Here is the input.
Amino acid sequence: MAYVYLSTAMKGLTMEDFRKVSAEHLPFDNIDGLLACTAGMDDKGLNVVMVFESKAHQERYAAEQLFPAFQATGIAPPEGTVAIEHEIDELYIR
Here is the structure.
């Protein structure tokens, strides 16, 4: 089983912001339990999907790396961001 975390409709954030925050934490291939990460823009804002081995991995990443990276860059997650998260029973990565 795996765990997916989707942050969507992050108005005011750009791909450049995503890259700045990402540069402040471990490289994606060194984040414990991270299976996949995608980021992109649409008319509603920045969308990021992360797939972890478990919810515990996602929570540890957020507490130990993501939130400190936001603080280090001075970039704040925008108000009204929609977060969707759930366990997944099947995952295929080519």
About this structure: Residues 18 and 79 are 16 Å apart (CA to CA). The helical segments are 15-23, 55-73. The chain has a mean pLDDT of 92.
